Amino acid sequence: MNPMIAGTAFVLALLCAAAMGLAIQRGTTCTVAAVEEWRTSRRTTRLAAMVEASLWVCAGVMLARQLGHAGAWPAGYAVSRWTGIGAALLGLGAVLNQACVFGTVARLGSGQWVYAATPLGFYLGCVSVGAVFSPPRPLPVDSPLAGAPPWWPGLLMAGLLGLVLWRAWRARAAQRIALSGAWSPHTATTVIGLSFAGLLLLAGAWTYTDVLQDLARGMAASLLARAALGLAVLVGAIVGGWSSGTLRPGRFRASALLRCAAGGLLMGWGGALIPGGNDGLVLLGMPMLLPYAWVAFGTMVAVIAAALQVLAPR
Predict the structure, then answer these.
(1) Where are the bilayer-spanning segments (predicted)?
(2) Cβ 97 vs Cβ 309: under 8 Å
(3) C-beta separation of 261 from 249 below 8 A
(4) How many other C-beta atoms can be found within 10 angstroms of the C-beta atom of residue 176?
(5) Residue 4: what pLDDT?
(6) Phi and psi dihedrals of 205, rounded to 5?
(7) What is the chain's mean pLDDT, rounded?
(8) DSSP 3-state helix, strand, coil percentages of the chain (rounded to 5)?
(9) For the chain, how long is the longest CA-to-CA vector?
(10) Closest C-alpha to 205, from 78, 72, 68, 303
(11) H/E element holding 76?
């Protein structure tokens, strides 16, 4: 590849990653918050918005492939008992952490620096999962979308655009992405989905929890570039907090640091067993209609709901 093209593509990938981080912070995107919304008000706005992000990624990637982009499909894995065990640990870790891996980015972008302990705990979970659980190597599977008819991505994209127009019509005016204030869940996840689709096409299959897993496995290939994308997500989240006026650095408390590290550890174990954190499930596995991702995300949501119900004040 021409170095100039490669360099330009990487800069664009960094911008996509930063836009994704900004949207995560502005929309306070988090699976725990989405389940809590359903538990307390029976509204599914946030959960539906996360699924919608998957659809945007799916439509964007498939449409690009129809137009000649030759990128590889994200890897998929067979469903096994480890899928359920990992998803349960991922859900319990998110509840203990009080935020999933998306929510961790949003909280860091709001100045809650104790959440820097979460990725550290996640990394330690990835390092120790073999000694604690000794899971077998997951069996790879292909995405069923590999054989999808050529008209399918265009139809999906048209449907998603129609949904955006319908929401704009209901509001009597198109919703603007302002420089300040919170975004609606659907606005945030639409930006996340489109940004991640661009990132996937420019830099390949990538999530920031993948970087931690690769680091734990000693896979140093392109690690610096992948880590730079993770840093761009964090910078985008911090810019989102600063520009919206929600960047208010909090105090460090030892109990909070331990809680975040322990939550990250459980999520690291879960992500290694599935394999994949909930960012990878929502933005890679679910868009490719891989059964393991839907099973894992559904199990994670159920475990979070059960744990929140048990912990709810009486």
Answers:
(1) 82-106, 113-131, 151-169, 190-208, 220-242, 254-272, 292-312
(2) no
(3) no
(4) 9
(5) 43
(6) -60, 120
(7) 84
(8) 70, 0, 25
(9) 63
(10) 72
(11) strand 76-77
Which residue is listed with tokens 């909930």? 278
The answer to whether residue 7 scores a pLDDT higher than 80 is no
Spatial contact of 126 and 273, defined as CB atoms under 8 Å apart = no
Residues contacting residue 94 through CB under 8 Å, at least 6 positions apart: 31, 32, 100, 101, 103, 263, 267, 278, 300, 304
Q: DSSP state, 282?
A: I
Question: Above 50 in pLDDT, residue 23?
Answer: yes
Domain count, the chain: 1
The full length of the chain comes to 314
Nearest to 281 by CA among 289, 293, 292: 293
Q: What is the CA radius of gyration of the chain?
A: 19
Structure tokens at 69: 């982009």
Q: What is the DSSP letter of 141?
A: E
Asked whether the bond before 119 is cis by omega within 30 degrees of 0, the reply is: no
Q: What angle do CA 208, 210, 211 make, to 5 degrees?
A: 70
Q: Please report, for residues 42, 160, 303, 307, 314, the alpha-carbon distance to residue 310 in angstroms, rounded to integers and kept in the order given.
A: 17, 37, 11, 5, 9
Global confidence as pTM: 0.87
What domain range is 213 assigned to?
Answer: 3-311
